[in-house]
Amino acid sequence: MLICALDPTSDGSVVLLEDDVLLFDVAMPRSDRPFEPLPDILADFGYRPGDIAEFVIAGVGTGAEAAPDRSAAGTRSLATALTGTFSMRGRKYPFRGFGRAFAHLAGAYAISPFARRGEPALIVVGDGGTAARLSYITPSGWVDSGGRVPSPAPRDLDDRIRSWKGAGPWNLVLAGNAGHAAGSTGALRTLPTLRDAWLSPLPGETGAALGAGVARLFERRGMACAIGWHSRLVPVLGAASAGAEPETVVTGVG
Predict the structure, then answer these.
(1) Is the pTM for the entire model greater than 0.90?
(2) What is the full per-residue pLDDT of the chain (254 aa) written as tens digits?
(3) CATH 3.30.200: does it fit domain 2-99?
(4) Domain residues of the chain, as ranges?
């Protein structure tokens, strides 16, 4: 099943998932009509809008009309799912929508080593100007909210984790802009509450678009899943030197 997920805000991004494999992730040009370039982007990879089983949007952008889905199990996803339509070249297309914060959470976990190993993880999500929030996700897809954290700085994280979940040790994912706010990931090595820590390489619109598609997979399957991906499929990693993988994994913490 093909899922096309978008974040049409600011410098947008569009991803295509086939089941639990990322096929591509490309930037969308900034536009007052952000959905108009989508058919051309799909065509570059040999697809048409009619090939897409579902469109999913992170948040709601220009040209999209949405309303809360009252049938959605919001307590499980910590997000109010949206359903609606968006306009693209004279046609209306239905979509499913998720909040950007939950999209970052779902996407960052799905590409993390913890999802591949079937392990639960704490996740700190920072998105734009909103306060960073701490959550806990299990492979079964259960998500629990730990509320706001004063900042993603190591000392603040350590205090918040201890007061909410105990001494651990725990796996930790930093998603959205939380990784940048945390400073050097090397400082995480000093936290005895952590076993492993992983910094998502997908901040901003790229991470939210992928996460929206993943959130829909979580919703359909009733459980979390790991996504097959490669750094060369992700435009935000294009600045890395040829053949080099980004330094995103901190192991042996504590």
Answers:
(1) no
(2) 899 998 877 667 889 999 888 988 888 767 677 788 889 889 999 999 999 999 998 876 544 444 444 444 433 444 556 788 888 888 899 998 888 888 888 888 999 999 999 999 999 887 666 678 889 998 887 888 888 887 667 788 888 899 999 988 999 988 876 655 555 556 776 788 988 888 887 766 668 888 889 988 888 887 778 888 766 555 433 222 233 333 333 333 33
(3) no
(4) 2-99
